[in-house]
Amino acid sequence: MSTTWTPEDLAAIDGDGELRVAAHRPDGTLRTSRIVWHVVVDDALFIRSVRGQDGAWYRGVQRTGTGAIDSGGVSAEVTFTPDDAHDAAIDRAYHAKYGDGSAVRSITSPAATATTLRVDRR
Predict the structure, then answer these.
(1) Residues 71-85, buried b or exposed e (16+ Cβ, 10 A)?
(2) Which of 9, 19, 66, 72 has the fewest CB atoms within 10 Å, i.e. the most exposed one?
(3) Cα dihedral angle (61, 118, 17, 15), rounded to 10 degrees?
């Protein structure tokens, strides 16, 4: 199974305003999914926790590093990898996709930026 997204998958996911994310528990079952904002930058999918490291879904992801996403008609098992190599481009992508309101200011804050995760297909 490929660990990369197809261009069609990325376009479908990117075109959706919300992404459902659920982390695996240590026993392999999925936690309850949560809705997060997401962006595609340099052919990769990224998410952040608007609540920083206090976000419940983010803490769950930190425990196992794996889970599932659903967005734009694409459902997939995934891995989550911390990745701060594209933070400035990710900030710009959040502003371009979601505007300049208070929610975007929160998702581009230092606390949220510290939780940037690259999401790769498993």
Answers:
(1) bbebebebbbeebee
(2) 66
(3) -140
Q: Global pTM?
A: 0.95
In this structure, is residue 1 part of a structural domain? no
What is the tens place of the pLDDT at every residue in 18-68? 999 999 999 999 999 999 999 999 999 999 999 999 999 999 999 999 999
For the chain, how many residues are written?
Answer: 122
Residue 64 resides in a domain: yes
Residue 42 lies in domain: 7-117
At 32, list the tokens: 């309850």
Residue 122 located in a structural domain = no
The total domain count for the chain is 1
- For 72: left if phi > 0, alpha if psi spans -120 to 50, otherwise beta; the answer is left
